């Protein structure tokens, strides 16, 4: 592994690490996480872009690479039948929870505006205003090396988007076309309809997380 690539994470590593950070906040009673629970989180259909379908073997191999990078700890608890895993993002990059929340959402859902990030981090960290989310983003941009980049505004859009840099340089070609199509159909920023759509999306995410928690709980007794 060369100096240029040793710190660049692949898509599987980004997904596994982000799932650990997300579930630490959403389901603390089930954290650290088992291999099965991490796999379910990686393959979750909601709050994921792109949606993935990873096998347990792939997730196990990915966890091992993250352990070697010192981004994940493997834990064997006394009396436990399976190993558990926890992330080390706070220690690795010296981050408080608000920054972890922002980075996690970017890792799970791709390029987003500050307003989208504020809405989608609600259960990981409660940003009172978009400005608070922007401050956390700026902190991640100013780190050395930077963990986040602010992109130029796409044609026809009013807001800049942000992306995480853990996977290397950001490729925006595919996202720009999809974002442009969505922007043409979306309700105006700040409108009542736009606010309701954001609230519905957040509720759907919450229901999906509750379903995932129930499924993980049910599987403990199978």
What does this structure look like?
The chain starts with 10 loop residues before the first helix and ends with a helix. The strands form two sheets. A three-stranded antiparallel beta sheet has the order 1-3-2. A three-stranded antiparallel beta sheet has the order 4-6-5. A hairpin with an 8-residue loop joins β2 and β3. It is globular and about 55 Å long. α1 crosses α5. The protein has two domains: 82 residues, Winged helix-like DNA-binding domain superfamily/Winged helix DNA-binding domain (Arc Repressor Mutant, subunit A); 110 residues, Orthogonal Bundle (Arc Repressor Mutant, subunit A), CATH 1.10.10. The chain contains nine helices and six strands, in the order αβααββααβααββαα. The protein is mainly alpha-helical.
Please give the structural blueprint:
Elements lengths: L10 H16 L6 E2 H8 L13 H13 L3 E4 L8 E4 L1 H5 L3 H13 L2 E2 H7 L9 H13 L5 E3 L10 E4 L8 H13 L6 H28 L3
Antiparallel strand pairs: 1-3, 2-3, 4-6, 5-6
Count of helix runs? 9
Secondary-structure-derived class: mainly alpha
The CATH architecture of the largest domain would be: Orthogonal Bundle
What is the percent of helical residues? 40-55%
Write a brief caption for the model.
The protein is mostly helical and 222 residues long.
How would you describe this structure in keywords?
2 domains; mainly alpha; Arc Repressor Mutant, subunit A; disordered N terminus; 52% helix; single chain; three-stranded antiparallel sheet; 222 residues
């Amino acid at each position: 592994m060369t100096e240029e690539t040793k710190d660049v994470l692949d898509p599987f590593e980004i997904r596994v690490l982000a799932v650990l950070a997300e579930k630490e906040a959403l389901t603390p009673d089930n954290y650290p996480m088992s291999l099965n629970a991490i796999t379910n989180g990686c393959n979750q259909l909601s709050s994921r872009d792109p949606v993935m379908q990873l096998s347990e073997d792939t997730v196990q191999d990915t966890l091992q690479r993250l352990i070697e990078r010192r981004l994940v700890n493997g834990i064997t608890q006394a009396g436990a039948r399976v190993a558990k895993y926890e992330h080390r993002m706070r220690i690795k990059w010296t981050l408080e929870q608000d920054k972890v929340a922002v980075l996690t959402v970017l890792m799970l859902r791709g390029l987003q505006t500050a307003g989208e990030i504020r809405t989608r981090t609600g259960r990981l960290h409660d940003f009172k205003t978009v400005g608070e989310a922007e401050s956390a983003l700026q902190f991640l941009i100013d780190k050395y090396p930077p963990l986040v980049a602010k992109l130029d505004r796409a044609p026809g859009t009013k807001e800049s988007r942000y992306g995480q840099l853990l996977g290397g340089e950001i490729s925006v070609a595919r996202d720009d076309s999809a974002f442009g199509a969505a922007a043409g159909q979306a309700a105006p920023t700040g409108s009542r309809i736009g606010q309701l759509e954001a609230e519905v999306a957040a509720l759907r995410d919450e229901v999906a997380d509750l379903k995932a928690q129930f499924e993980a709980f049910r599987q403990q007794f199978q």
